[in-house]
Write a structure and sequence with these properties.
Blueprint: E1 2-7, H1 11-22, E2 27-31, E3 42-45, H2 47-53, H3 59-64, E4 66-76, E5 81-94, H4 95-104, E6 111-113, E7 117-119, E8 125-127, E9 132-133, E10 135-140, H5 147-152, E11 158-171, H6 173-177, E12 183-187, E13 193-199, E14 204-211, H7 224-234, H8 240-248, E15 255-262, E16 269-270, E17 273-275, H9 290-307, H10 311-341
Parallel strand pairs: 1-2, 1-10, 2-6, 4-12, 10-17
Antiparallel strand pairs: 3-5, 4-5, 7-8, 8-9, 11-14, 11-15, 12-13, 13-14, 16-17
Helix pairs in contact: 1-4, 1-9, 2-9, 9-10
Length: 357
């Protein structure tokens, strides 16, 4: 029997596994997707997240895989600078790179890929064939639309936010050479449409578009060809850098993200089940705090599991410590969403799209 079962091998699942591994605690990770599917696009990580990562991975390896950003520059969609703000140790990295780094410290026998699990009677995990997984504790890290969370908290209200997001990475030395190490974000004057650019390396650029889905009817049914055509039309009159990135990008691995949030946070635990990362508290993308919050959840939960003999007391202290900060990020995220939906002249000029506590 494994003492701890971890559901999900994304950032939060691998983060908690690294902390458990560091403290020689018995665990096993169950991931429903194939290892090759765990790619995705990228993250912004503020200083606090880097400090927590440094406790479980080699910082030099991390820094080789991403880029520190010097300042945030807010532009109009035509390229006029609206505001600039220095950034203090904000790091950008591709999701695939961070996943690879976090996986390095986990023995291969500790992760089972393509293993879909569900919650059965008496708080036991079940494989798809109905066989049970014996574990004393279940740590759930299966994402913002967690299936296990919905099984535990059947009355939760998960609602769509008035914003969707397209995220992609372009490989282009020529375009990357034109971009400094800044967080560049272009805003349409009418509000509800932005285009962000983040340089990952000398030949890789992470870009994303946030859009009011009530104005721009783009959804998961779009084919690769239709998505590129639609985005090319939407951004054709924007600054040439934006339109060139749209034009030159491949869309085979583009991610179209429908954003949801919980109307009210659930408890972070119930009986022998405890939630971390997005499974506990979905954060809308304006906060840029997903990775850092997952890391802090993992650190805090592990510390209380070590200190407290009583499992329920460890869970209670974990929730008591983490919930107030998460609620702050949720409020900040909703404020940033409100700013995004306003016309440019009504937005606060120096607002950085990162939630700080």
């Amino acid at each position: 029997m494994n003492t701890i079962a971890v559901v999900g091998a994304g950032i939060s699942g691998l983060s908690i596994a690294n902390y458990l591994q560091k403290h020689n605690m018995d665990y096993h990770i169950y991931e429903r997707r194939a290892k090759a599917d765990l790619t995705g696009h990228g993250f912004l990580i503020p200083r606090e997240g880097i400090e927590h990562l440094a406790q479980i991975i080699d910082k030099d390896s991390l820094f080789k895989q991403g880029n520190f950003l010097k300042k945030y520059i807010k532009y109009s969609h035509k390229g006029k600078i609206i505001a600039e703000k220095e950034l203090n140790d904000v790091f950008v990295i591709a999701r695939s790179s961070l996943i690879a780094i976090l996986t390095q410290n986990i023995p291969s026998e500790k992760i089972s890929y393509e293993k879909s699990v569900s919650l059965g009677p008496l708080g036991k995990l079940l494989y798809s064939d109905g066989n049970s997984i014996d574990s004393e504790i279940i740590i759930v890290s299966d994402g913002s639309r967690s299936r296990i969370r919905r099984e535990v908290f059947k009355d939760e209200n998960m609602k769509a936010v008035q914003e969707n997001e397209v995220v992609n990475i372009i490989e282009s030395k020529e375009i990357a050479a034109c971009i400094e190490d800044n967080f560049m974000k272009f805003h349409h004057e009418d509000g509800g449409l932005t285009f962000g650019i983040l340089k990952l390396s000398e030949n890789r650029i992470l870009w994303y578009s946030q859009f009011d889905h009530e104005k721009y009817k783009i959804d998961e049914t779009y084919s690769v060809e239709n998505l590129k055509k639609t985005l090319s039309e939407i951004f054709k009159d924007w600054h040439p850098l934006v339109s060139s990135i749209i034009k030159e990008s491949s869309y085979e691995n583009v991610h179209l993200w429908r954003v949801y949030e919980l109307e009210h946070l659930n408890a972070f635990y119930k009986d022998n089940i405890v939630f971390v990362g997005d499974a506990a508290h979905p954060l809308i993308p304006f906060t840029s705090q997903g990775v850092t919050s997952a890391l802090k959840d993992a650190f805090t939960l592990t510390q209380y599991l070590i200190k407290e003999e009583n499992r329920s007391e460890a869970f209670r202290k974990y929730e008591t410590e983490r919930k107030p900060e998460i609620e702050l990020h949720i409020r900040n995220g909703r404020t940033l969403l409100d700013q995004f939906l306003r016309p440019l002249h009504q937005q606060t000029e120096n607002t950085v799209p990162i939630s700080y506590k």
